[in-house]
Input
Amino acid sequence: MWWNLLNGPLYRGDAQRSRQRLGFMLGSLDIPMGASDIFTKNCDWLYFAQRTGRAGQEWAENYRCHLPKLEVGKRALELMRRGQIERGGELLQEFIGLVGTACNEPSSIKAVLGRYTHGIQGYYFYCRGEFASAKEAMWLAHENVARALSTADWLRLLAVHCQEFRLHMARISRNQNRLPEMQAYIGEARAMMSDGLPLCETEDGRKILWSGFKPFFDTLQPLTPEETREANTLLDPNEREYLFNQFVRNMLSSRARIKYA
Output
């Protein structure tokens, strides 16, 4: 089954490199939640947004004003991961209320906050076995990413999260023993890497494709060696195939509680 789903052999590679880069390629999958700056240090989309120019820098500065709110969401997620589901749910409601106070912010800021709100909600529903609601939350997170990109193209790397949401839905389907549905989600996530399926579609009808990452990085040239390594995680076919295969293999080999949001 793994061979068919992965469409080829697993590459050998350095495990530490895989852990470091998998989170970048797949948005925020399996990122350790210990760092206090989880939504900045571990989210390269924000770093590269700043690199695009003044508009991206000003956006990032505005976004950082909401880090105290996001910290509440992070704490809610940590509680759920430790099995304190109801306490985590209470903190999640506090987080949702705090995010609601950002009603006067630009739509792209609100959309990114919404992406994390629905991501954490999805995990809460998953932990409670409310799988339909968990999947709905993933679709809402997806829609928020598309909304953010509708007016803020400097957030282009955030589109990788849309592939992440498909893989989360695959994991949920796996736990529901809906294997054909799980395979379909994995297939959609794979198709995104070859433009067989757009990552998302903006409100004005623009299809955000994986191939769009190269011109995005081209506008940031010259890249530092570290930036080049990060970019190749998305641009190098062998690298992204390796990381994708490794994630899917781990997903299929374990029924451990998923770590998403």
Remarks:
- The chain is about 65% helix and 0% strand.
- The longest helix spans residues 107-127.
- The chain has a mean pLDDT of 83.
